[in-house]
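# nightly structure sweep
# worker-07 picked up a monomer target from the shared queue
# config: single-sequence mode, recycle default, output format = structure tokens
# input follows
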Amino acid sequence: MAEKFIYADNAATTRVIDEVKQEMLPYFTECYGNPSSLYGKGRDAKHALDSARGRIANIIGCDAGELYFTSGGTESDNWAIKGVAAANVNKGKHIITTKIEHPAVLNSLKALEKQGYEVTYLDVYENGIVRPEDLRAALRDDTVLVAVMFANNEIGTIQPIKELAAIAHERKAVFFTDAVQALAHVDINVGELGVDLMSMSGHKIHAPRGIGALYIRKGTRIANLIDGGGQESRRRSGTENVPGAIGMARALEYMTSPEGLAKREEIRALRDKLCDLLLKIPNSRLNGDRYNRLPGNLNVSFEFIEGESLILWLDSFGICASTGSACSTASLDPSHVLLAIGLPHEKAHGSLRLTLDIDNTDEDVEYIADCTAKVVDKLRQMSPLYEDYLKNNK
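# output follows
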């Protein structure tokens, strides 16, 4: 059993903070009514749900009536993509996205491709960022949707969303951004950005799993994804997750409060220190843009090792980290994101993703860097490729 425990995989999920848990508790026990019920306990639940919706809407800069609760980011992504495609089929069947989207987006698009839709996948180049001129060149009269994630879940790079949305609108295409990783970690105002749809998830910001939301700008043509009893203004059926909605609102308020914003800058400083320490390890490289990235995200590749082995060794030291997206860990294929920024397979396989958040400390950073250096050295000593490298570079 490791003496220490350091959680550095906050892009996968986050712990529910005490403020969130305490505000949620009454909605599991005392105020447990169904928001669709007409009696008092149901009305109380409905009031709490509407309050949570308004609190979130106020922070992201939209009307409460433009925000719809879902089960999480995956459902929101599916709804945005498939809903827009179904509602705009008369205009065309062309969609534009990037090569580094989350699997929830890429696999939704694969499903549409089987139905005859054509998808253009934009390059992101070495820094992991889309070039606006590439989007403009790819747009066509039959383009119905442009889907570009706000910030990447593996390498943390932040896209020029406002500029990309404006370009999409020049050809009257709907613009959707997956902001699951970006929410509360960067400043977001949907009105200023000009996006038509934006997906969000609670468990990336210290709310529980199982709650998310989709912002749908008023007037955007989109079909329903889930049919049933007509909840969420007849847009998304299913009994609402009132405790989850309350938790998501409280978490977002904390993360965007003066205390939360100060924490954000502390996290950025810790990330930069950890980056400098890890890049002192020979034959290492930072993946993604050094500065235009999420505050806590760090993705580094080490030559001559396997990322999975590195993760298991770090776990033995009490460090939780990952090689990439937690939503595709069953695959042994190299990260599609790292391949898209130009890494060869062997370097992509040796990646380490560390995502810091409000609980991490300077001591954590020192310990992570020290353990990583030791493990990388140990793994390289067992690598025939590294042995050949040393012989050839004497």
